[in-house]
Protein: KinB-signaling pathway activation protein
Amino acid sequence: MNSRKVVNLFIKTLAIGGLIGLIMSFFVNVNGAYTDNLQPLNIWGLIGVMLFFIGHGLLYSAVSQTGFFAYLFVNRFGLSIFRSFWPTVQLFLIAFIVFDLIYFPYKEAEGEVSIIWYILAAVAIVIYGWAIAKIKAKETKKHAFIPALFFMVVFTVVEWVPALRIGLIGADFSLIMIVTLLVCNTYQLLMLHRLNKAE
Structure:
């Protein structure tokens, strides 16, 4: 893959991130950001709020892209070390990350939030990752399923959870972030083989 295609992928993923951040903001409406500028109508305020959420989408997209290039390195590194055992290691890491996603946030919440919500969040991410991995395997090769699932689950959670743990984002922003990360990760994963085939 040449540098032009890498830059093209970067710019398109960045644009998708900004767009998803903006679209999600309409549904989440963090702290009444839109309603405060609609009654009374404040055009400049609305534009400012929209730019703010586009900026968040761009930021989350950049995090996603960093994770994607880290995944490409980790996948090659894992193959060189574990060889035929690498798929098994990836499945173990997926299980560990899913457990981590449920147990540690629940423990930090100190019972204020039911564990069911953490289980549902983890299951939703795994189901979505499973669906995308099936698409990836269908469009490429069967053995691409586990690496794709590994990326969609492990790297998405690794990109998302640190911001939650250190309190950088609230519940509303965490929803915007996870959706943006999932969409950007999906786009990059499904575009990679198309770019390589075009090459």
